[in-house]
């Protein structure tokens, strides 16, 4: 994956610097973010995403030594501070909960979430172009599915560690590379005629999509946020089964073959099981072992739900206005003739 196009002065300076040998970045770059909303600031979210990606598969045109360059870490820390402050403004501090009550508190958070549903919209009104847009947004995460939450494995012990490994083993295909959820998603992208190489559509997605991804990396890369990481994963699993059933059904109405729906069908079954493991065995065990971190579990879950609401609102508002939900200069059309048997409905 090559570095993306810049979206402002900070990402421009960062990308330019990354093409050379690691040297200190210019001082004061982050000052250009003063007065902006970190959650919708394309320049901030892209800069943060670029920094985070150095800890995953990196950038093909960037020297890997940049990963630990002190000035880059300082810039990342400034972006994270602004991001975290925005999250705390968005999500109220959770009320104190006894560790034993964490599974029930997570269930209440999920039940009370009143955000708009992309799954319901695509199920009611299946549309090939809109579903393709949705797949492009989600490709930024699904092509590395499970990786952000895997940062939690070495930070845990005992029952919580075992529960996380059980979930992640399924996500990574239960020992079968072709069954990895990221590989199943590639099959969906192929049917839509989309490029399915890792990170290909980063340039096409807006700040809110990058923010949903950056949230996972923020929690995963900081040991102090291990509880929030687990809460985020629990909320993810607890809100997944029904939407994925709707996505799979919508694709079938559009004429998609089994290979294209398998990603969603797999999650209907897997996440119904993961929901119980994540809430009780993972988060419940963690809160019991580290009761002072119980509130972080709920904060992580609430942040995940809040940013998912913001993402769904962005997409649905764009569609209602008759616009693409992708960035205006990156509206994407099929790049192959993969769709041969689709019969659009609605």
Automatic annotation (TrEMBL):
Pfam families assigned:
Haem_oxygenas_2
* Matching InterPro entries: Haem_Oase-like_multi-hlx
Q: What is this protein called?
A: Iron-containing redox enzyme
């Amino acid at each position: 994956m090559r570095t993306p196009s810049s979206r402002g002065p900070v990402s421009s300076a960062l990308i330019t610097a990354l093409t050379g040998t690691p040297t200190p970045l210019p001082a004061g770059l982050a000052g250009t973010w003063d007065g902006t909303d970190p959650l919708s600031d394309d320049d901030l979210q892209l800069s943060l995403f670029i920094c985070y990606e150095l800890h995953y598969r990196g950038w093909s045109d960037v020297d890997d030594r940049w990963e630990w360059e002190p000035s880059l870490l300082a810039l990342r820390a400034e972006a994270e501070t602004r991001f975290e402050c925005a999250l705390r403004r968005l999500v109220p501090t959770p009320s104190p909960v006894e560790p034993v009550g964490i599974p029930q508190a997570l269930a209440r958070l999920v039940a009370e979430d009143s955000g708009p549903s992309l799954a319901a919209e695509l199920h009611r009104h299946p549309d090939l172009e809109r579903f393709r847009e949705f797949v492009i947004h989600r490709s930024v995460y699904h092509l590395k599915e499970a990786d952000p939450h895997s940062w939690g494995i070495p930070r845990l012990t005992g029952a919580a560690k075992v529960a996380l490994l059980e979930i992640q083993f399924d996500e990574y295909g239960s020992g079968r590379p072709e069954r990895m959820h990221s590989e199943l998603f590639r099959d969906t992208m192929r049917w839509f005629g989309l490029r399915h190489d890792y990170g290909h559509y980063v340039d096409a997605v807006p700040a809110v999509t990058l923010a949903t991804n950056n949230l996972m990396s923020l929690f995963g890369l900081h040991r102090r946020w291990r509880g929030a990481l687990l809460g985020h994963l629990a909320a993810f699993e607890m809100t997944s089964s029904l939407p994925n059933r709707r996505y799979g059904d919508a694709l079938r109405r559009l004429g998609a073959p089994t290979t294209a729906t398998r990603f969603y069908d797999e999650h209907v079954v897997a996440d119904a099981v993961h929901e119980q493991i994540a809430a009780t065995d993972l988060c419940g065990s963690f809160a019991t072992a580290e009761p002072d971190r119980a509130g972080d579990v709920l904060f992580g879950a609430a942040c995940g739900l809040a940013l998912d609401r913001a993402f769904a609102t962005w997409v649905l508002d764009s569609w209602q206005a008759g616009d693409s939900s992708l960035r205006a200069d990156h509206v994407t059309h099929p790049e192959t003739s993969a769709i041969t048997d689709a019969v659009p409905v609605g």
